[in-house]
From TrEMBL:
It comes from the Bacteria. The keyword Signal applies. It comes from Tenacibaculum jejuense. Residues 595-673 form the Secretion system C-terminal sorting domain. This is Secretion system C-terminal sorting domain-containing protein. GO terms for biological process: membrane protein ectodomain proteolysis.
Length: 674
């Protein structure tokens, strides 16, 4: 519905938030922990000092150009001897060449409720080692990624930066108590892995996956459970079943953070450590054994040193082919190679979840390849290689550009993986909603409902069954989240400094508008909390003197008086019974909110005018939508102005939403704490 915007158009705030799902990435974990008031203890786990003598004593591969040898503080390491004493959140200084990386880490849980770890063939329960898993970021590097697992005397770490090809690896040097921090790109020439997916191992996708989802399908907040068998060669190398299990747990933490970045939450459901030679040595025999003996998980994965590369069936969930095998590496000249192992496991699991290689001729909606890092699989031309490195499902490690784990799976493979998981009937929902952002609300204002006979292209957004979806380049749908009941959720007010384009949303004088064809379309009142744009607006009344800004419902539509004429705002979802022939004015004034200073450091002042009800609720939410502060203001007389002050000194820097609810009316402002 077009709106006469003659006077209205001149005052609103730009909308920079489009409708995107909030995946719980490492940065969001840190922000969430800070907003919850978790204390980040500074843990000085490493002894600092010159290491030239240690470098002379310890054999280090000549290929490593820049590395740091680190000694652990046995006193501080004692904090991690028991999971109850290890910090929930911590700041960990990590020396790197001439500087120090400051890691911000939060404890995470990896295991499913039915997790078990046993030795085979004895079936004895594996004696657990105390190991604590963390994820987070490098301070002031919001797009970095850190996964770290700590047990008494040993650390397994993986660190990725946004602007670097390659990763930092932190691990214990074999035969020494020292740890090493190095860049894995220095030994990338060792990465000769090829995934052995032959045509034999491609399973035909179920019909519901072949359709490329003409119709959107909601994310179900599911958590695939991964079960591992550890070959005897790994068990012997690690010194027994307990140490081997801890090693696989640490690898799984690093694999899981890659999937978590894509909105997928993996759970570790079981480990079986073979203390003698396993009765299988390849994918076919592993499948045969596990199909006979069963396992508690959605995917079974066999890890061994005695295999070159990896192999897995594609589209394997919920069937008898739900298995993969990864040939992992021992240390290279005493140096651990965690990043290579996690890349291999993540790659093979990606096949189980339905993704082909990026050089396969199945992508882009026209059966072409995403990259040309290897000869194409199928009848399509070979494109170039990405200059900034390939993604997890690529073979870019085989040429000079390398694989950049920071890029994750890439949008199209990630979409296939999510779709496969969300539609798998055998995969259970997460007890914690998966950590993938599927429970977060998003603004669906101004987005049309899905229509069956419409030709959608990449980037188009639709609403279907109360959720927001975006069309992908692979002719599929990404589930971005549940539509918020707050009509103006995440939308900023208009500003004269912004250059608006079609599709932009703004809030003006408590109403929501969308830019279309160089004009503004009214979408309803921000006071709406139930999906009806007319919710909370009174019907027009005869013989009433209306003031500028007042809203009424008339003949099933919402109008606002701008001082000169009535502006049509929206069509009501349910029409009030009253129908009148003419509109006139009224003397009612609407609630108004003013906040200052904004941005704010210490104390946020706000003033609310024209209060209607006796009680007012004040709430402040962080960027994740989590309530961080609430306050009640009572004994308010009608029409009064209320001035209050909020202490925000203890809150982390960032963007917040201040919302004032007076009776049935609400008004909100974005606030930046600096």
């Amino acid at each position: 519905m077009k709106t006469n915007f003659k006077l209205l158009v001149l005052y609103v705030l730009t909308m920079s938030l489009t409708c995107t799902a909030q995946k719980i990435k490492p940065r969001e974990r840190i922000l969430s922990a800070q907003s919850e008031g978790q204390k980040f203890e500074e843990i000085n786990l490493f002894n600092f000092g010159k290491n030239s003598r240690r470098k002379q004593r310890i054999k280090i591969p000549k290929e490593l150009k820049n590395y740091e040898l680190l000694s652990l503080s046995s006193r501080v390491m004692g904090r991690f001897s028991n999971s109850n004493s290890s910090p929930e959140a911590m700041i960990l200084p990590l020396p790197n060449k001439s500087s120090t990386m400051i890691l911000q880490l939060v404890k995470v849980s990896l295991k499913s409720d039915d997790y078990s770890s046993k030795e085979l063939p004895s079936k004895q329960i594996t004696k657990p080692l105390e190991i604590t898993h963390y994820r987070g970021i490098i301070k002031n590097e919001s797009n970095s990624r850190v996964a770290m697992s700590i047990r008494n005397g040993e650390i397994y770490g993986y660190i990725s930066l946004d602007d670097k090809v390659g990763n930092f690896v932190l691990g214990k040097i074999k035969g020494s108590n020292e740890h090493i921090l190095y860049e894995d790109k220095d030994i990338s020439h060792l990465n000769d892995f090829k995934c052995q997916i032959e045509k034999l191992h491609h399973l035909k996708a179920p019909k519901e996956l072949e359709k490329k989802s003409k119709q959107p399908a909601a994310n179900a907040g599911k958590c695939p459970k991964i079960f591992f068998d550890i070959a005897n060669d790994v068990v012997r190398d690690k010194g027994g079943a307990s140490a081997a299990s801890a090693f696989v747990e640490a690898m799984f933490n690093q694999v899981a953070i890659l999937y978590n970045d894509e909105g997928v939450n993996l759970k570790l459901s079981g480990i079986r450590s073979w203390t003698s030679t396993a009765p299988f040595n390849d994918l076919d025999s592993y499948r045969s054994y596990r199909n006979r003996n069963g396992f508690n998980g959605d995917l079974g994965h066999f890890v061994t040193y005695n295999y070159s590369g990896g192999v897995a069936w594609v589209n394997a969930l919920c069937g008898s082919y739900r298995y993969g095998l990864s040939g992992i590496y021992r240390n290279y000249s005493n140096v651990p190679r965690y990043s290579w192992n996690i890349s291999t496991i993540a790659h093979e699991l990606g096949h189980n979840f339905g993704s082909s290689h990026t050089h396969a001729c199945v992508w882009n909606g026209n059966n072409t390849a995403i990259d040309g890092c290897y000869q194409t699989e199928g009848n399509c031309s070979r494109p170039g290689a990405p200059s900034d490195g390939g993604t997890i499902m690529s073979y870019c490690h085989l040429n000079s550009v390398g694989t950049n784990l920071r890029k994750g799976f890439g949008s199209q493979p990630a979409s296939v993986i999510r779709r496969s998981i969300n539609r798998a009937s055998c995969v259970d929902s997460c007890s914690d909603n998966g950590g993938g952002g599927n429970g977060d609300e998003v603004s669906c204002a101004g987005v049309n409902n899905w229509a069956e006979n419409t030709n959608y292209t990449a980037g188009d957004k639709v609403v279907y069954n109360g959720r927001l979806f975006e069309r992908t380049g692979n002719n599929d749908w990404n589930d971005l989240g549940a539509c918020s009941s707050d009509n103006c959720y995440g939308v900023d007010e208009w500003t004269s400094e912004a250059n608006y384009k079609d599709g932009d949303l703004v809030v003006y004088q408590g109403n929501l508008f969308k830019r279309e064809n160089n004009d503004w379309t009214g979408l309803g009142s921000c006071d709406n909390q139930n999906g009806d744009p007319c919710s909370g607006i009174d019907p027009w009344q005869e013989n009433t003197n209306y003031q500028a800004g007042d809203k009424v419902i008339y003949q099933g539509k919402a109008f606002e008086w701008n001082g000169a004429e009535w502006i049509e705002l929206a069509t009501c979802s349910s029409q009030p019974g009253i129908k009148l022939n003419s509109l006139s004015k009224n003397n009612f004034k609407k609630i108004a909110l003013n906040v200052y200073p904004n941005p704010v450091k210490e104390f946020l002042n706000f003033k609310v005018k024209h209060m209607k009800a006796k009680e007012t609720k004040v709430s402040l939410r962080n960027i994740l939508g989590k309530l961080v502060l609430t306050k009640q203001v009572n004994r308010i007389s009608p029409g009064a102005t209320v001035s209050e002050k909020i202490d925000v000194k203890a809150l982390p820097k960032g963007i917040y939403l201040l919302k004032i609810t007076n009776g049935k009316t609400s008004v909100a402002k974005r606030v930046m704490i600096k």
